[in-house]
Design goal:
globular, five-stranded antiparallel beta sheet, 16 strands, alpha/beta, 16 helices, eight-stranded mixed beta sheet, about 20% strand
Length: about 425
């Protein structure tokens, strides 16, 4: 008697994942049965959308990450930390959030108090450590607002933050949408890189948009579509001297949602600052001739690779940030660019080394030293990650540049 159809498909998807994992790295572990089932449902969802025509990669990435009940960030599997797929700076050491708290305190004190708003708060680790440091600095915000698209991560944040003292935990509020107005500090650590990206290529002088199709074997594959007018307009804004250096085939990305997001922040922000922390480059480095394969990167069980069409629903998809575009779009949104530098410079300016020196426990000293290597060293996160500060209404209350950029301010490189 033949097995049920859904069982045969499940095994087929399991075999598909096994093949993909073996191709990426034979030592990578096979996901759990629950994760395989989740991936299978997302694969079916994407396949149905691709039944009649290809879809732009930005739409594929949006569904792969955020499709309700199906995307990577909708799954219940652990995403961050040693048992997840990747690690962020706040998870490495509380020193990161403590430094960030000092910068937040400076802004809040300058404007006479206000709120904090964090986008994509992960497991709530940064919010917890930041609030505890702000309490020590006597600079607690009136509220700590969180906007989180993942129901699973929101639950993990609630579990983390409810352990805070009641007078601090009571200040944390989750929002579904941006508030109508806001004064204080807006935080986004590794948010821009997860926005759905448009992938494009220039082949022998012709601009094309990279899209996703489905093969007869049920695999996802790349295809190319004519560039639409919005992509053509954006491409025309790139410096001609930069484009002329590219090889005959050049492929990269742009973030179509970024400008609208920054415009929204500019609209609601009355007084305060926006701190964006992410990996990326200024434009002349982002679109360097040697970076002809783009910056798309995927993360599964701490293994990084460039193929976003495999392991759907099981891996994080990211694209690096063009910080020149961020600065230009921020200015167009009515925001000032207050500072820009690499993560190492930002943390050092805020006293991260002094903080580490104050640790007395020998075991904690060793842990802190290892964390500092990860956070500060150029070949780790120190130079790849950048911090850009945007602001509004601070001219009359800030008498000097933000402390986070006291040692390094690289705005002239944007």
């Amino acid at each position: 008697m033949p097995r049920p159809l859904h069982r045969r498909f499940s095994m087929s998807h399991r075999e598909r994942l096994q093949t993909q994992l073996h191709r990426l790295n034979p030592r990578l572990p096979l996901p759990s049965d629950e994760a395989i089932s989740h991936s299978e449902r997302l694969h079916q969802h994407l396949s149905a959308q691709l039944a009649n025509q290809p879809m732009p990669f930005s739409a594929f990435m949006a569904d792969a990450l955020y499709a309700p009940g199906l995307g990577y960030y909708s799954a219940g599997a652990t995403k961050l930390g040693a048992s997840g797929d990747f690690v962020t700076a706040p998870e490495i050491s509380p020193l990161f959030a403590r430094c960030l708290a000092r910068q937040c305190a400076e802004v809040l004190q300058a404007i006479g108090g206000g709120e904090l708003l964090e986008f994509g708060a992960g497991r709530g680790i940064m919010a917890r450590d930041l609030l505890l440091e702000l309490q020590a600095l006597d600079a607690l915000p009136s509220r700590y607002l969180i906007i989180e698209v993942s129901a699973d991560l929101r639950q993990r944040q609630q579990e983390t933050l409810q352990q805070l003292p009641a007078d601090i935990a009571g200040r944390v509020v989750w929002l579904e949408h941006l508030p109508a107005t806001f004064s204080g500090v807006i935080l986004a650590n590794e948010v821009l890189d997860a926005m759905p990206a448009t992938v494009w290529c220039r082949r022998d002088g012709e601009l094309l948009e990279c899209a996703v199709t489905r093969t007869e074997q049920g695999e996802f594959a790349w295809t190319e579509l004519p560039a639409d007018k919005s992509l053509q307009r954006w491409f025309a804004s790139l410096p001609a001297a930069l484009v002329e250096q590219w090889p005959a085939l050049y492929r990269s990305e742009m973030h179509p949602l970024q400008a609208g997001w920054l415009h929204s922040l500019g609209r609601i922000l009355q007084r305060g600052a926006v701190l964006l922390i992410d990996y990326g480059f200024p434009r002349h480095e982002f679109y360097h001739p040697d970076r002809s394969a783009g910056t798309l990167m995927c993360h599964y069980r701490h293994h990084a690779h460039p193929d976003p069409l495999v392991l759907v629903g099981l891996q994080d998809l990211t694209a690096h940030v063009d910080f020149t575009a961020v600065a230009e779009q921020a200015l167009a949104a009515g925001l000032d660019v207050l500072g820009y530098c690499h993560q190492a410079g930002f943390l050092q300016s805020l006293g991260v080394l002094d903080m580490a020196m104050q640790i007395r426990d020998e075991t904690e000293q060793i842990v802190a030293a290892q964390a500092l290597k990860k956070l500060l060293m150029p070949h780790e996160m120190g130079e790849l990650f950048k911090v850009i500060a945007l602001g509004k209404g601070l001219d009359d209350c800030l008498t000097q540049p933000l402390t986070g950029f006291a040692l390094y301010d690289m705005r002239e490189r944007l």
